[in-house]
Amino acid sequence: MLGVGVVTLGLYAVFACVRPVPAPRITLDPALAPAASRPHLAWPARGQAALAAAGYGVLAVHGKQTPTPTASIAKVITALCVLAKDPLGPGQHGPTYTITTADANAYHTEAAHGDSVAAVTAGEHLSEYQALQALLVPSADNVADSLARWVFGSLPGYRRYATRFLLAHGLAHTRIGPDASGLDPHTTSTADDLAKLALIATGNRVLMQIAGQHSVDLPVAGRVTNWNTDLGTAGITGLKTGNNTVDTGAFLFTSTVSDGTRTLPVAGVILDAPSLPDALHAATRLVRSLHVGFRQVTIPARRRVGTLTTTRGQPVPITTTEPITLLRWQAAPVTMTVRSIPGRTRGDAGTLQVSAGPQMRETDLEPLRVMPGPSLWWRLTHP
């Protein structure tokens, strides 16, 4: 029996020496993550509005989100659909279209009604790029419908394509009316849908390049200017103004926020303002408040961020090895987690991951002193 006991103790000692020990426990400092807070946003006094950011989606809305006429903001949908069907890369001009007698007659009719137009004449040639310029810069209603007919065969054909496009992008509250210009009030949407639409537009370099042009030169119309007089003000980079008999002032705008190394597209919209100048003025105030609502989260290198409790119960402070900087919407929570590394050495405490909205940064962690491994006595006395 004594021999069996000796063998058993020997086997146990071998097992205790080679068995894996529980991983150390890491506790992060709860004060490390800044608390979420509601930003103060300069909403317009009238109508509805919304703000959005890439990766976040819609950040905030104002007013009842009831479908309302988009007016010429609809031309952004037209442009996106044209570029989806006939894509252009930077520097490309695409196919050339010939202005027909019907196109020229439509121009004269709409000009007589006081609509927003670009002069054309039968036999004139416009490239796809030039047609998009006429669509987005002087907001030419006549070119919107002509371009839709050229690319989609007819206005009903465009309407079917645009409806599928909107549904595919989750814009369920947007409806396309009988034209491609938005002049007809049956093209309707909500502010939150349109803010999402603007984010989609920021992903198309050709569209954003055109929308950021203060003026363009067209073959017959000559030099025409952009209705978006906010370009370059308060960091506004685009996108499209609008007004008709129902929605007297609308503006879909884009901008960016940056932490110095990365840039995040942001967007917003004003609908139902008393006039287009009122919408443009309200947008500058709103986008400035949007910029202030983004805050930089910084954790410097060598910052103590928590404690590692060793297998033996000994607390060891842990610090970051590299700095972390990210930009977050201040209403979004900051999440901090530690990812363990298989085969971790005594001088390695894992990786800290910091997330806010779509952004995630990480840095390795290290203990302030070498973590001692479990002693033989500890192994033997902790089965």
Automatic annotation (TrEMBL):
The chain positions of domain Peptidase S11 D-alanyl-D-alanine carboxypeptidase A N-terminal read 58-274
Q: Which domain of life is it from?
A: Bacteria
UniProt-recorded Gene Ontology molecular function terms: serine-type D-Ala-D-Ala carboxypeptidase activity
Which residue windows are transmembrane per the record?
Answer: none
Residues folding into a coiled coil are: none
The protein in question is named: Peptidase S11 D-alanyl-D-alanine carboxypeptidase A N-terminal domain-containing protein
What Gene3D superfamilies does this protein map onto? Answer: DD-peptidase/beta-lactamase superfamily
| InterPro entries attached to this UniProt entry | Beta-lactam/transpept-like (IPR012338), Peptidase_S11_N (IPR001967)
Q: What GO terms describe the biological role, i.e. biological process, of this protein? A: proteolysis
